[in-house]
Amino acid sequence: MRRMAHARRDLSDDGGLAPEIGWSEPGSFGWGVFHERHPRLVRQLREDLPLGAGQAEALDALVAETLGGVVAPMGADAVEWEGWGQGRFGRPWREASFLWAESCFYRRLLEAVGYFGTGAWRGVDPFGPAKEAELQGSVVDEELAALDGLGDADVDEAQRRDALLAASLWGNRADLGFLMTAGGAGASGDSAGHGLVADDRAQLWAHLERRRGGLVIVVADNAGRELLPDLVLVDHLLRGGLAAQVVLHVKPQPYYVSDATTDDVVAALRRLRGAGTEAAAQVGRRLWECAAEGLLVVRAHPFACAPSAYTGMPEDLAAEFAGAALTVLKGDLNYRRLVQDRHWPATLPFAEATAYFPGPVASLRTLKSEVVVGLEPGTVRRMDAAGAPWRTAGTHALVQFRS
Q1: Which residues, 6 or more positions from 137, have their beta carbon under 8 angstroms from its beta carbon?
Q2: pTM for this entry
Q3: Could you give the CA distance from residue 178 to residue 32 in angstroms, rounded to a whole number?
């Protein structure tokens, strides 16, 4: 116990930390997000939505403000941001960390389109058309049809569960905001573990077997093509008895383009139930029933949209995580928040970086930003020597676990 307290003090207090990852240095990944991805996103919203002149002007002003201005105050409705602001309002955007600035941008984007207002656009997800188009696409039909093959007699349990885990892991590449600027992700990665820079699958499954029948929390990332395999994995955990209950955490409001909300969960379950393939339809029907029986619970905590690491999570959320047999954090943003989005050495042990987290934790993440920990020195040397942007291109992934 003394050792864990020491690790928490080293990695979550103000002193002795690696620097936060910024975004204002030309050529950095964060610089590209603000100078290229965000302007492109605004143009895409204009194509997808019948925005009025005032909304378009507000979006353009937001982009200009981020690139050369100071952080303007939030609207009166942004109560949580009074604490999350951390003294950054009124200071140049370029001084804020990448994690904080990117989160603030998306909150302000919602204000610009009227999501929090009193008019007709109140509560309208500006990313809804893109999410719906992806969810109803033919690619999803093909992916759902693949579930039929997992029921074959010659597919053993280990193969089946690893295939479902891999689908959930690599489904993270279906991030609409990422694909807008990356032109699609690479083809590496499959159930055999190709493309994995860290692979704790065996430890993860062994832990779930030891804690069989407990509470499993899944903190979702993206909607659509990522959320569907997440739900299929949840069905597997419940159906096989590895979890007695699954709590699925989603965002309380739209966030990073394709982040999952409760509406997206409902849409995904309907897509499963109405699938043309029987295996997918059965998953949808079972999960619908699990929701009615309280075995699948959807939760949307305000901290899901906080611009900070999980080291600052409120007590009620920490208590919930502490009571789970396992918390699974999906995706790149959750990983950044888990390890604090700092310039850690890539070889910093995952267990050390996450020692503060209250309970067993696992990360399923496709790499689409700079931070990474828990890698073997040889892996880092090999990946760096290849000369490709392996940390940000979405071509590699990891499964990391700490008991």
Answers
A1: none
A2: 0.91
A3: 12
